[in-house]
Amino acid sequence: MNKIIIPVDFSEHSEHALFAASVLAKKTNTEIEVVHMLELSEALLNKSESQQQMEAIYYMRLAEKKFDEFLDKDYLKGFKITPVIKHFKVFSELAEMASDADLIIMGSHGTSGVEEFFMGSNTEKVVRTSDVPVLVVKDRVNLDIETVVFACDLKEENIAAYNKAQKMFNAIGAKVQLLYVNLPNDYFLSTHEIKELTDKFLAKTAKEPDFPVAYYSDYTVEDGVLNFSNTISADVIAIPTHGRTGMAHFFNGSIGEDIANHALLPVVTFKI
């Protein structure tokens, strides 16, 4: 990896993302770019041009001061870190900035839902708009990654995301476990049917899988992914995503948001 981008609001959760980035950057000698989005209120935008300029300068300088304190961490010593301040009103700037990045890392507020990570936006919005993989962390975790569970329905549209996940994680010495969750009733597939689906999928992947493909039976895909990941003591869960409508649809509904919300493990999304 060459560059990691971290959107921050200077909160504890942002610091979790910063710490996670430092662990990955140490392994790969990666540049870290820390981005803070300023939200200019409608009241400010309706003021005169001179008032707008004065208040914008004030908030910029306040953010610069916060950056000085936020980045004063022992674990960041020796890293190449670039602080960046942008106006939230031009949200597309984040996607533009990330065009040459390998990963976006964000902190989230726990299992009750994907919370806002900076004023006016949230994790889901970044996941939906980003062509770059997005890693969501909820606690201060040491990303000494050994095993990653990549969960998908083995459809051809997921192959590029799976290849990208393998390339990224193999580069840091981690192995990727491909997972298919078998559901009851109308979605149930026999072992033979799953084997056929698996063979077609693997025939088009870039390399041999790190492990034999895992098949796990459960009542929902979310439960299957979380339970299997816990069973094998995985370090990260990876999910393919559709940028247009949010997380990828497994079978007859979008469950990616639930996995990102409820998983205690870090979750990384790869856009299809």
TrEMBL record:
What sequence ranges are listed for the domain UspA?
Answer: 2-138, 146-270
Which Pfam family name is an example for this entry?
Usp
InterPro entries given in the database record? Rossmann-like_a/b/a_fold, Universal_stress_UspA, UspA
Q: Which family does it belong to?
A: Belongs to the universal stress protein A family.
Return the protein name.
Answer: Universal stress protein UspA
UniProt source species? Neptunitalea lumnitzerae
Organism classification, top ranks?
A: Bacteria, Pseudomonadati, Bacteroidota, Flavobacteriia, Flavobacteriales
Gene field:
uspA_1
